[in-house]
Structure formats: C-alpha cells, structure tokens
Specification:
It is globular and about 65 Å long. It is about 30% helix and about 20% strand. It is of the alpha/beta class. The strands form 3 sheets. Strands 1-2-4-5-6-7-8-9 form an 8-stranded mixed β-barrel. A two-stranded antiparallel sheet has the order 10-11. Strands 12-13 form a two-stranded antiparallel ribbon. The two termini are about 25 Å apart. β4, α3 and β5 form a beta-alpha-beta unit. It has 3 domains: about 200 residues, TIM Barrel (Alpha-Beta Barrel); about 55 residues, Membrane-bound Lytic Murein Transglycosylase D, Chain A, CATH 3.10.350; about 50 residues, Roll (Membrane-bound Lytic Murein Transglycosylase D, Chain A).
Length: about 325
C-alpha cells in the first residue's frame, strides 16, 4: 500500500484545495517551529484540507538544543494538535540549522527522545522526520528505533536500511492548486487505520481516549465517508444532528470530513442491513454468518475497511 502526499508550510502561500483534491492522498502540515512560533498558515491549510476531504498529519520544526527546550516545544505542539484529529502522524522535524548544527549526537538523541516521548504519552502517533545523513549519523541510536521514521532523501529510491513509514523523495514537486515547488512524499503504512484502531491522535478507535475512560454501553463508531452529512448520519440512526453534534463535541455540524469517527449513542437502533464489528471478528466469519463471501463483503465495504481485508476493527459499521 502506497499513498501519495505532500508536506506544506506557509512557504506554499495560498493553496487552492479544491484543485488539489484528487491529486494527493494526504498532506503533512507544519504547525510550528522553534520554541515557540506558530506557522501562520496552518489553520487555513487544515480548514482547506478538511473541506476538500484530504486526510492530514502535522509536523513541528525543532530548534531545541537541550532536553528542556525539547519538552517546551513538545508542550506547545500538543497544545495546538489537541484541537484536531489528524489521520496521519505528528512529526518532530529534526534538521541542521545555525541554531542546532553544533549539538552533539548523544545530546541530539536525548532531545529527540524527550520530544517524541512527551508527545507519544499524550496519545499521538509520533514520527521522526530527518534526512538520510542524520538518520545514519547523529540519530543512529537504538534509543530512537522504537519511533517510526519519515525519511527525507531526494532520490529515485530510498537507501535507508532501518524501518521507516514515510519517504519524502523530492523538494521540487509540482501540484495543481499550488504555485511553485512542493515537497512530495509516499506513505507505506495505512496510517488512518493504525491511528484509529489504537485510539491515537484524539480518536477513540477501539480503545479508550488517551488519558480518558472507555465509552460505556453499546456506542457505535461511524466512520464518515465522502459525501456524508451529520444530518444524514443522524437520520440513518433515528436521531438528530443536534444530538450527534452535542455527543461528539462538534462545534460546527456542517463541517465533518472523511475518516472522522462519529460516536452513535446506545439508544439508537441499527439497521438490520448493517453489522457492527466486534472484538475478535474476522471478515470471513462475518460473511459466513450472513451467507456470503468475504470477497463480496469486502468489495461492498472497501471504503470503510481500506486496502487490507484482513484488518477490521471494533466499531466499524459494515453493510451486509
């Protein structure tokens, strides 16, 4: 599975997201840099991506030279991303700059670990962004092997030998809707499924919200599809959009986006033509129960399941 993406910051200027739509599978948005300055375009970009139905992740460009500065940057980053539900990772961008170029390798490893550990403990899927030279050099430590990597290597193919989930392969790409160059990326993992399954990035998934309580009772997780409206979802489950908005803390009922999880309270009735996945279910087992094949069930629910029919998770709603 490969997904094509871009990463963007205020350097990209004004973006026509309706034109961009259909040309990328995801975008990584810079929220901030240093300790601590917000990117003055990130809110506009997130709004545009959500409106166009393009999943996104976030990244913070670091200027930290000590562990305490890294933690300060992590706290600022968490304070921003807590307001969103990114379906792609949140990244710590580690690059050489006139501020950080003289930081020793062992100190830099501690700085990166401090930031990532803090963000991870807050309930986010964190990755390390760095170029090949850094990953093979200053950051080549077993202490950082537990974190996913976003490799920056502008080449025809990646040569990094350790595991990595994303690859930034060009800094001079072009995309409809964007003037000038833009970084191009490939994601090799099904991040939306991983993140939602694990209940990370402010999603409940099949687990409790990080730092919170498991939802009581029979709460259904409905995954928003392209074209869905909150009123349409409410109608399907014999409730009102006002109740769903209140239950899910949605401030603007007119603004939901693909991949978002809408929690349906236990009192609503579920159509007999649908099945709510339970812990331990398999697609073949569900198919057998309803006298069909897993292949037919998968084709009917591909937009919900994604690219891997062996991977379904509790709370998904399948059409039978």
């Amino acid at each position: 599975m490969e997904k094509r993406g871009i990463d963007i910051s205020y350097h990209q200027g004004n973006i026509d997201f309706n034109t961009l739509k259909g040309n990328v599978d995801f975008a990584m948005v810079r929220t901030s840099y240093g300790h601590f300055t917000e990117d003055n375009k990130y809110k506009e970009y997130v709004q545009g991506l959500e409106g166009a139905g393009i999943p996104y992740g976030f990244y913070h460009f670091s200027y930290a030279t000590t562990v305490s500065e890294a933690i300060e940057e992590a706290e600022g980053f968490i304070n921003i991303i807590k307001n969103y539900k990114p379906l792609y990772p949140v990244a710590f961008d580690v690059e050489s700059s006139n501020v950080t170029e003289d930081v020793r390798a062992d100190d830099l490893v501690d700085i990166v670990d401090a930031f990532c550990s803090r963000v991870e403990k807050a309930g986010y899927y964190v990755v390390i962004y760095a170029n090949l030279s850094y990953l093979n050099g200053k950051l080549n430590s077993s202490k950082l092997d537990k974190y996913d990597k976003w490799l920056a290597q502008w080449a025809s193919k990646p040569t990094y030998t350790k595991p990595f989930g994303m690859w930034q392969y060009s800094s001079k790409g072009s995309m409809p809707g964007i003037s000038g160059n833009v970084d191009l990326d490939i994601a090799y993992k099904d991040y939306p499924t991983i993140i939602q399954e694990k209940g990370l990035n402010n999603y409940n998934g099949s687990q409790a919200e990080p730092g919170g309580e498991q939802e009581p009772g029979n709460v259904v997780n409905y995954v928003v599809k392209k074209g869905d409206t909150l009123s349409g979802i409410a109608s399907k489950y014999s409730t009102t959009y006002q109740k769903l908005a209140s239950y899910n803390g949605i401030s603007n009922p007119d603004k939901i986006y693909p991949g978002q999880i809408i929690k349906i309270p236990e009192q609503v009735e579920i159509s007999p033509s649908t099945y709510v996945v339970k812990k331990g279910d398999t697609l073949s087992g569900i198919a057998s129960k309803y006298g069909t094949t897993w292949q037919k069930l998968y084709e009917k629910n591909k937009s919900v399941i994604g690219n891997n029919p062996d991977k379904i998770y509790p709370g998904q709603i399948l059409s039978i």
